[in-house]
Each structure stands twice: as structure tokens, then as C-alpha cells.
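ARCHIVE CARD
Drawer: 12
Card no.: 0347
Subject: one protein chain, sequence and derived structure
Cross-reference: see card 0346
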Amino acid sequence: MNFSKAKGNYPKNEPNSALLNLYTDETKIAKEEYTAIKEKMERERNTLNLSYANTMYSLGLTHKKLNEMDLAIESWKTSARILEKLGEGKKEIQRRNFLEIANGYHSKKDFCPAAIWYEKSIFIADVLSNRKLFANLDENDPIKGDLIFRIKFVPKGDLVDKARHLNKDVTVYVNAARGQTEFAFPKGKDFSTIEVVVATKSGLSVDYPFDEYRAVLSVSAVDTKTTKPVFLSLDFKTSITDFSISVDKASDGNAELNFQIKRTGSTRFFSVFIMSAMWLIILVLLSILYSILVLGKKVEIAFFGFCAAMLFALPALRSSQPGVPPIGAFSDYIAFLWAQATAALSLGIIVALWLY
């Protein structure tokens, strides 16, 4: 039978547009959920691998203390293999493993493998030196809880071409509290200086002059096309002189700086000196009242001038403290408010006795 010659009018199956749209939307949502779950699992796996790598490194140090150098080297090699799978972002701690392996072979007088591992370590060190970020802390605003950084990157080596321009598209991410958090640098261009505002994680300005703050600056970069991480090494400098700043680099090799900020010793000393001076003024004012109320000394015009002058002099004395926040700080409750209240009360009492 030749079915090709068969004729007939058959109804066409028209798809239901509403059902089709619903199916498309559900498929899109399912894909997004699958992607999110996959990325989460990847992050968790990387975290576990990094933890395992650090554990193997610590185990190697333990074997080293026990003079079990063969076991120590194997532990460090295991840690290095795991870190290599995690990609470029762990070069700093990878270099740590290579150095330990090289030192281990050297202690065993196996100089040939020691030289090989030293060479690997030197290569990574060269990569690190060619990918340095310089974060300059320009301003610290303890009242707003902001740190303002200018970040400058001068790439060398495998990241630039002969003309010193980028040889790939790079996207840089920062943990900015306000403003832009993602910066794109196209191939063939230079890295421009970027300004980043980072929020402090702890600390209150009302604790002046004993206020302390903690903050974290984190910078990461990826190849824009492949999304593979681009390793960066982050260094720090500042021109701020009225704060003491200590910086710790992240232990996992990331481009991350942990800051602990507090007032300098000279600032604290001067603030305590001002508070002591205020208490000395309080004692003088109370001595004047005592001489008038208890000892019966006559009210003199000089007393009016001194008390009135203190009402205006004390705020200026308070403002002379470096970086002092608005009214309500710890130093105010310790000295300034008491001194101001004593001056006002003394002036009121003396005026009342002079009038009546």
C-alpha cells in the first residue's frame, strides 16, 4: 500500500501557548536552581579540600618534629596535589608546601630533588611578585565606620604583553560596603586605580579614646572569559598617623587583609591628660564654692569671670583632643560633662549669693 498517496483533511495539533509558557518558565527556574546547587556544592567541596590540604600540611610538620622526614614529605606532597586542583588562588600556601618539601629533601641530603622543589617555589614567588596589589588606606572615618582605600595594581610577567598592557580580560571583585563591587578591565588596557569603601566589622567611636576597630579588605579576580581565578597578592600602606594599624594577611593564601585599628599611644596619652586637666578644673571650682559656702569668704567679681570663662573654655579644651567624636563619647562621661556641669552650677550659686 502506498501511503504517500493517501489524502485526507486532518486537524492540526495547535500547542497551548499558556502551557508552553508555563513549561518554559518552570524549565528556566529548574535550570537556575540546578546551577545554584551545583555552585554551592563546588564551594563546599573546595572548602573541604582546602581544610584537608591544611591538615596534611600540619601533619607533615608533626612528622618533621618526630624526625620522620619521609612521612613529612609525603604529607606535604599530598597537600600540594590537593591545592593544585583548587587552582591559581592558592599559590601562596602552595609555595609553603614546596619550600617544606625542598627543605625536607635537603635535610636528607637528597640535593637533586631538593633543587627541583626549590625551583618550583621560586617560580611561584616570581608569579606572586608580578601580581601585586597595593592597597593604600587614605581615610578612616570611625563615626561612619568606613575605611577608604585606593587600590592600585601594576601587573607584570604573564599578565601583560610587550607593551605592558593586559593580555586578557580581567574582572576584579572587592568587598565594598558602598558603591561598585565589580570592576572590569578589558584586554589591551591598563589597570586603573580604584577606590573602595570598606565597613568596619566591630568597634564604636563612642569608646574614644580607647576605641578599637576590625575590618577586612578582600580582593579577588577572574579571567572574564573563562571565569578561572587570577591570583593576586595584596600589600598594604597608609599615610594615616593618628591611628595604630596592624595588618594580618589571610592564612589561606587569598588576597585578603585583616585590620585591627586603634588610637595611637600619643593620642590616648593626650586625651587622658585633657581629662585630668578637666578634673583639676572641677577641683578648683569646688574649692571656690567651699571657701564661699563653708569658710564664709566674700563673693568677688573674679569668681564670676573664672566660672563664666570655664563654661566656654571647657568645650574648646575638649575639641583639642585629636579625632574626638561628637558629644557622647566615653571621655565625655568621664570628665567633660562633669566639668561643664560643675562650672555652670558654680556660676549659678555665686550669682545667687551675690544677688541675695
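Annotation on reverse: The chain has seven helices and nine strands. Confidence is low (pLDDT under 50) at residues 1-12.
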